Input
Amino acid sequence: MTDASLFESLDLTAEDNAGGDLPVRSPIDGATIAQVRQANAADVPAMVARAQAAFAAWREVPAPRRGELVRLLAEELRAAKPALAALVTREAGKITAEGLGEVQEMIDICDFAVGLSRQLHGLTIASERPGHRMAETWHPMGPCAVITAFNFPVAVWSWNAALALVCGDPVIWKPSEKTPLTALATMRIAQRALRRFGADAPEGLLQLAVGGAGLGQALAASPAVPIVSATGSTRMGRALAPVVAARFGRAILELGGNNAMIVAPSADLDLAVRAIVFSAVGTAGQRCTTLRRLIVHRSVREPLLQRLRAVYAGLPLGDPRAPGTLVGPLIDADAVARMQAALARAQADGGVVHGGQAVTQGVPAGGAYVRPALVEMPAQTAVVREETFAPLLYVMAYDTLAEAIALHNDVPQGLASCIFTLDLREAETFLAAAGSDCGIANVNIGPSGAEIGGAFGGEKETGGGRESGSDAWKGYMRRQTSTVNYSTRLPLAQGVRFDV
Ligand code: NAD
Output
């Protein structure tokens, strides 16, 4: 399919694709596939005013009816899945299966949110006072700004938007400046759902603000945007969080990870190898949950490394649209340069590097292709403790589980983690209070590829936010505690006497 027919199938018009000042480059071949228009910080007040007006109407629409809009969105996403996935591949470089998986994740969170729209429940709490009833109610909060990263160019919006919509909140989306086209296409799909939904959905309910960091900062600074959900690097979170905090806004931060796997002596190595390869090289190492550190018991280190080296040597790498490709391009040449710099530092620290070279033969010219790297490290040095957003897996050895857990937790990030073991004591120790310090901790599953039913997010420099399933919806609502006195007396709490 040509770019032009793909764009057309997603209702992207010539006005969307051309004439703007932001070039969109495909990581597959470096081609400029569109020139989109950007908003800037001066446009933010009007957008926020539209979102506030939409909020006044949308919060009055019953939540199950709000869920109907999300149900229609899921229908439209199902119909558009192959086309949107193909655009994700073209713009972000994901292999076809992962592009389809990303859109499926959007559908899954919509389905989840539809059910949720009838389940936005609070607690009732026993009152200490006779003739009193205490309860909590969850109310819509207000406009939610959603700032997203390039590596999940559409799914992260849907994690936020599907929940925000049923919770009664309008959404202003600032996508990554590297992936604005998939955002435009997603908005077109949402518009199909809005048209079918009818007049209950106010104008300004879903808005898109294409632009860079300055636009994100303007949204973060706006006191009329009570929720800012931001996904990206820890560097971004460090710049944004104080701005939101200074006006007492609510930030949901989903930042960088440095995810590890402990491979214990009893591990099923067949399973471990498959999990390691998927989570270390899938999406060309550009997932927040990508496996970056392998902490292997000394007794199984050599056999595991031998198998990994063999698999890595034969990984099908190239055009992500070609059947059979497992490793597509990195997002751009800068990402390749950062990977090379990290490999050089690792080598200087005594690391033994396998793979990691830039690839120019047998791949589309102009793309940013690299061989995934395995690096045997003598210790967890400074470079290992940083997130390098590339397919770069550091391998370290351990002797005792306590040592492995200490190494595991001794990084600034706290997103996803796992242990491969058949020993129940080891598995439970890893999941216990003194075990993994991450938001996600798995046993006999790699760290990446989460389902939407669970809350997603991590601790420490990952930012502490939670999105997606479980009770993450509470982040998009305000809690109101109410006490109702249906008696004829006015008893005070804590037995206080105040007779007048
Ligand atoms: P990035 O930080 O460069 O950009 C992310 C978004 O933040 C973009 O929309 C960008 O325009 C915006 N931004 C950047 N600086 C900003 C600022 N000072 N103020 C306001 N907005 C700003 O990240 P990226 O390169 O697009 O994505 C890769 C990073 O995202 C990795 O660190 C990865 O781990 C992280 N990530 C985290 C999660 C998660 O759920 N924890 C998910 C996906 C990606």
